[in-house]
Structure prediction request, 922 residues.
Amino acid sequence: MRPVSLSIPIDRESPIPIFEQIAAELRARIMSGAIAAGAQLPPTRAFALQLGVSRSTMVTAYDQLVAEGYISGRRGAGFAVENIGDVSLPSASRAREVVEPVARLLLPFRPGEPDMRLFPHRAWGQAVSRICRRVPEAMLGAAPRFGLPALRHAIAQHVADWRGLEVDPAQIIVTSGASDALELCLRVFCRQGDFAAIEDPGYRPLREFIAAQGLTPEYLAVGAQGAELPLQAKIAVLTPSQHFPLGGSMTPQRRHAFLRWAQQNDGWVIEDDYDSEFRFSGRPIPALASLDGQGRTIYVGSFSKIFSNSLRIGYAVVPPELQQRFADVQRRFGMRASLMPQAPLAEFMQTGEFYRHLRRVRRTYDQRRQFLTDALRRDFSDVGTFDDHQAGMQIAFHLKNGLRDTQVAEQAAKAQVEVESLSAYCAEDRGYNGLLMGFCAFDEEEMAQALTRLRAVFDQL
Amino acid sequence: MRPVSLSIPIDRESPIPIFEQIAAELRARIMSGAIAAGAQLPPTRAFALQLGVSRSTMVTAYDQLVAEGYISGRRGAGFAVENIGDVSLPSASRAREVVEPVARLLLPFRPGEPDMRLFPHRAWGQAVSRICRRVPEAMLGAAPRFGLPALRHAIAQHVADWRGLEVDPAQIIVTSGASDALELCLRVFCRQGDFAAIEDPGYRPLREFIAAQGLTPEYLAVGAQGAELPLQAKIAVLTPSQHFPLGGSMTPQRRHAFLRWAQQNDGWVIEDDYDSEFRFSGRPIPALASLDGQGRTIYVGSFSKIFSNSLRIGYAVVPPELQQRFADVQRRFGMRASLMPQAPLAEFMQTGEFYRHLRRVRRTYDQRRQFLTDALRRDFSDVGTFDDHQAGMQIAFHLKNGLRDTQVAEQAAKAQVEVESLSAYCAEDRGYNGLLMGFCAFDEEEMAQALTRLRAVFDQL
Prediction:
């Protein structure tokens, strides 16, 4: 069958990204029947040329429609329109008034944000609807202590497959995001006035939790091997797989040094493994917890980066002998995680939809990382340097020539470019002076535009 | 049309309550077509007699099926089977393996629990499915600061209609349950070492939050007028509509005294209005916040009691001039509430389904309260007394004749009866010695069985 011939209007001034304009137009025509089920779509290269967009934009648009279930196929072999007889069209206009969609306000290069435009909303909606019909009480019934058993099973499988952690589902505690898990750990292990060691620079809410609990922070400098060992604290919160926000992983030597430290000092390591699923080349680095034979490490994971931040689902993996202590604290303070996302998420993981999505965004984010790092090397080498760790969701771009990161960030914000200053992530003066640039939530077109504006900011400083 | 003739096997030894056995059997026959659409069901009184169950059990079973949409009608006029051609039957047996429903482990008389068996699961599932189809990004997109606008609108409407509070939706902050809102308030107003005043007896997690934040609790004794005024603290957390756990409301004089105290001392009142929608007779008592013309009261509400505890959705209503302070704290500590329940909940409220459910459970809970208070007056007056406040979700039953509440609670637990001891809700020795008995999550049959066992406990002490 010859591919259908299509003309799609593109508005380059629109705030809607071009790939989304293309996907929206194709989606509308498929749903209205204007493009019939079974029709072949034009190949990405030819279609991109015809519309005057980059090929990667075209690929992203097709990938989006594949994820949503409107088309099937793959690059090279061609894409065809699915039979979508069962799609429910939006019925009432009133409906749209009742719940308006949330406006997208992200600016490039906000760090740590996934691109929810790539999310398989239709497949997720179907999973949620299936649960609603089949086991509605799993979404609203009594919330079981530590989370829905099905989700705890799926997470145990996930950390075994992806992080080399062989654990019993009974060791999993479902929390309201990783930050809830980190706060829970601090409450279990620390009393008023205790020291708690955290990396500096590091994840800022941790400093707030520590201050709010009346603990004294011990800041660990981060060198080429990773964070330094604590001298006073009995608890250390670390990001060994990929340091936040600098990037780079802790060396095996330092990992073992931390495990020895914990063992010899009756200490505890909290491993905050916030986005380690995003490693774009080489072998995955096993979790520090997987090296620990002494039950001194609490592993904390999150779905905020790899799935959706607004679900508010994270988890802690707790050594068996600590389960009672965690249960006591959780009972005293109350459960924070909503039950509602847990059953659909478990099903999404168990049916493999979750992993299809994860593989897809990994591929896309890798392309975006490549695009950003190429551009930084090509057009920004006079103002800064960076290490490409081929992992994570952001680049720490270190400024040179006396440029001040806070000043650059401030000027960039005026030009609608969001770069966070590295120095803002430090509690003490560490000499870090750079920009944290997220590359996941923005496509190449958006980043290109933002880079042009950022270049102008540098040229005017 | 003559009512169909039905025989339903009832297992009185089963842990499944009888009304649910009846509802399950009718539901299965309706779904299989064994009872046809349009068929009249037997009248409650005759059917109850035939099956040998109480009429209220029968009414609860029918009400359940009405809420789920399987039958329609009302007591007196008769009930008929709906056309359920569009019901999706559970398709694969595999599906049930993926997500098992959560087991019901509640024992009478656990306090503060709604009866999720009465929940309109089918209508809720349909609302969720509609959102999934129409605006899927409203469930998983970027979480807006302070919560989904549609839900904040619905909550503003709710507190206006139910609590006499005229507020702008911009003043609403959606939180992960009321406890998250209370913790947020403490973080906004208190620094390490400050006093925070809370009622004693009172809601126990508050004591934990206060200790965990390095604050000093000032315990307010609770008398006939309500809580006493603080002497040292600048912040007081109160339950004026219905004291927790004693019951009873704060007098207007004391309410005004608290507002004057706040105004004259630069103090703040946090009004924890956790279940005030459950007032079964007389006029609703307006929120304390509705009397406050000075912006000194933060109103905290929750969906945990009136809807579902496992959604984890509550809210704070913040005076306009404090919004920035709350926003700052929320940004520093991070958002806890999941976005996913917010759009369906907003729609449920706006379409009125929410209020149909609320009116229905109010009626049922009122019957259950009546049943429990009648039984306590009739069969337990030798061992204790209580005030019937005709509100709330539990009865504080004060023991007499030298009985010790902790001992009774312990023995009751052995007999599979869950009564919490009032003294456990006190931080200081206040002379409270009683049992907290929840009546909402249990039907009359369940309570009758539990009361028989509780009576035996008293007889053996």
User: Anything to note?
Assistant: The domain at 125-353 of chain A is CATH 3.40.640.10 (Aspartate Aminotransferase; domain 2). Chain A touches chain B through 74 residues (CB under 8 Å).
